[in-house]
Write a structure and sequence with these properties.
The protein contains seven helices and twelve strands. By secondary structure, it is of the alpha+beta class. The protein has a twelve-stranded mixed β-sheet. A hairpin with a 5-residue loop joins strand 8 and strand 9. It is globular and about 65 Å long. The relative contact order is 0.23.
C-alpha cells in the first residue's frame, strides 16, 4: 500500500490475483497524514466494601453519545483530521473465500513511506522517498503481483529502484489516480457508539462502488478530532467473497525512513534483458 502526502493512491492495484484486484478502500486511505495520537479509553473505579461502611455503588464508565451531526459531516471532519496530520501507521488484511490472504503494514510521513507486504507466503518490502520507489521481493511476487516481465523479475536481486515514468511504477506505488475521498461511503448513516479497539467509536455504515457495490463500515473516535479507528469492507469479486480489514494507529509517531544504500534501476534491468 502506498501513500504519498501530496498524491493519495488510487483504488485498484495489482493483477492477476482476485484479492489483489480488490484492494479498493485500503489503497484509497491516506495513512501518512494522520492526526497526532490521542488516547480515548474507558475509565472507571472498582467499588469498595467495609463492614462499617455501606457498599459504594460501582462507578460504571459510559460511552459518550453519538455526535449530533450528519454522517457525511463526520466523515468530512475525519478526512480533515487526517489531511492535517503528519505521521501514522495502517495495517490491513485482505481475506478471500478461495483461501488467499494478503497483509500490508504501512508506516509513513511527509514524502516518505515504508511497507511490508505478504501474499501466500511471499514477502515484499517497499520504501518511498520523495517520488523514488524501491522494492525488494522474489521474482514470483514481482511478476505476478507487480506485473514485472518474467525476464526482469528473474534478474532482480536486492532493491529495485523505480522513478515516475518507469513501467510498473504506478503498481509499486499504487499511485493510479481515482477518488480524492479517503472514505468514499455512499449514503452513510450513523449506527451508534460502540467500543472498537478499546476506543469509544462512532459506527458509520454505507456502501462502496456502484457497479460492484460492497458493504463498508467506518469507525471514528466518538469525540473530536474524530480520528479513524478501523475500516471494514465486505463484498465479492467474480463470485469470491472478499473481506478487507484496516486498522489505524501510531498517530504522530515519527519513524526513520531512508532510501536503501544500494539499488538497481528498473531501466538497467530492462536493458540487460534486451542485450
Amino acid at each position: 500500500m502506498t501513500i504519498l502526502p501530496s498524491q493519495p493512491p488510487g483504488p485498484v492495484r495489482r493483477t492477476p490475483n482476485i484479492s489483489a484486484q480488490y484492494v479498493v478502500i485500503a489503497i484509497v486511505v491516506v495513512v501518512a497524514l494522520v492526526a497526532a495520537y490521542l488516547e480515548f479509553g474507558r475509565g472507571g473505579h472498582p467499588s469498595s466494601t467495609s463492614p462499617a461502611v455501606p457498599v459504594a455503588s460501582p462507578i460504571v464508565a459510559t460511552a459518550p453519545p453519538a455526535p449530533k451531526m450528519a454522517a457525511s459531516k463526520l466523515i468530512n471532519l475525519a478526512e480533515r483530521t487526517v489531511k492535517r496530520a503528519k505521521w501514522g501507521r495502517i495495517t490491513f488484511t485482505i481475506t478471500s473465500s478461495n483461501g488467499n490472504v494478503e497483509t500490508e503494514d504501512v508506516r509513513g510521513g511527509p514524502h516518505v513511506q515504508s511497507e511490508i507486504n505478504t501474499f501466500d507466503g511471499h514477502i515484499a518490502r517497499v520504501i518511498i522517498v520523495r517520488k523514488t520507489a524501491y522494492i525488494s521481493a522474489d521474482s514470483l511476487y514481482l511478476n505476478q503481483l507487480e506485473g514485472f516481465p518474467s525476464a526482469v523479475a528473474d534478474l532482480a536481486s536486492g532493491w529495485v529502484r523505480l522513478v515516475p515514468g518507469d513501467p510498473h511504477y504506478a503498481t509499486v506505488t499504487q499511485n493510479t489516480g481515482g477518488s480524492n475521498r479517503l472514505f468514499p461511503l455512499i449514503k452513510p448513516k450513523v449506527v451508534g457508539v460502540v467500543e472498537r479497539s478499546g476506543v469509544d467509536s462512532v459506527e458509520l455504515d454505507g456502501t462502496l462502488g456502484k457497479r460492484n457495490p460492497r458493504q463498508g463500515t467506518l469507525y471514528l473516535a466518538a469525540v473530536k478530532p474524530y480520528r479513524p479507528i478501523e475500516f471494514d469492507e465486505v463484498g465479492a469479486v467474480h463470485g469470491v467473497s472478499i473481506t478487507v480489514a484496516l486498522r489505524f494507529g501510531d498517530f504522530g509517531q515519527r519513524v526513520r525512513i531512508v532510501a536503501p544504500r544500494h539499488s538497481t534501476s528498473y531501466q538497467a534491468l530492462l536493458a540487460e534483458t534486451r542485450a
